[in-house]
Amino acid sequence: MDLAALIAEADDAALLRAVDGLCAARDWDRLTDLARRCRDAVELGKQLWPIAEHIDYRLALEGPASFAGAVLRPGAGRFALGPLTEVAASRHSWSALAPHIANPAVRAAVAQERVLRGEHVPGTDVASDLPLCLAEFEPRYALPTYRDREARFPAPAVVQRQLPPPRGLPAATPLEEDPAARALRDTVEPWTSQSSGTVAVAAADGDAHAAVGCLADAAAVVEINPGQALAWLQWAGASGGAYGRRRGGASGRFAAWWAAAALAGLEWPAEPAAPFVAELGNALDELRWYRWAPPGPESGWVLRLAVADPVDGLAWALDATDQRDEDPIG
Description:
Structural class: alpha+beta
């Protein structure tokens, strides 16, 4: 295989076949060299950077830990199927990747991706805004599956549950948005800023039905447990919606914890030490969590969550949806 000739011809299809062949042969050195040549060719007017980005993705996905770690740079993989930190962490342990990652932010993201997969990362190895192991109250999160040219991002099981028929809701007056409402909105921020989604949030005096009543005239409202709610928030926070850039599981976990702490009225600490984690777990159990849906089928990306604080008599509801142009519209 003459890499120089492939670069000179700038034939994308031939280059992709070459990438497939080098991956099949596990010739990681030549694959890395091909990525370098593709980037250098930009100076000659050949727009081969997408091939270089695809090679980075394949190295993160299929290469040994040393090669996978080498492509984990800030900003790398911008047009890949998902963040390269998530891609590499789906295939390699922390102990395998850590020696090959120098950037602190990248190390933190990879460590959190490994935590999502049940690994306990040594605290001396990385600085992180979240615990480096799953808390007792955390669920089993829905994790993506990456392949050479496709990726799947399954929704949490709670989304698959069949709902009862919608019922009419009493009209309610929404309160001014508070930190909890803003935290819920921030969870799905890319759905509107980078994609075509819509997001509405309401806070209200009363129970979950009152909060949902600020957003819909009728809806099915079903109680779920805190773990199901946290899994759903993490899934949404990891996603970019229909067209936005995926943020990754680590970002999704942070978004879920941030929203949960805001709903519980807890101030975010300088470090999420054991007392804060225990307090958050207790607060999640005291809140009441709901999935809700208006009449009609749901499609695309959906996060319709309601939360009630029975002690303070407050409730919040979030209605976030996004879909591709080809998705059916209910």
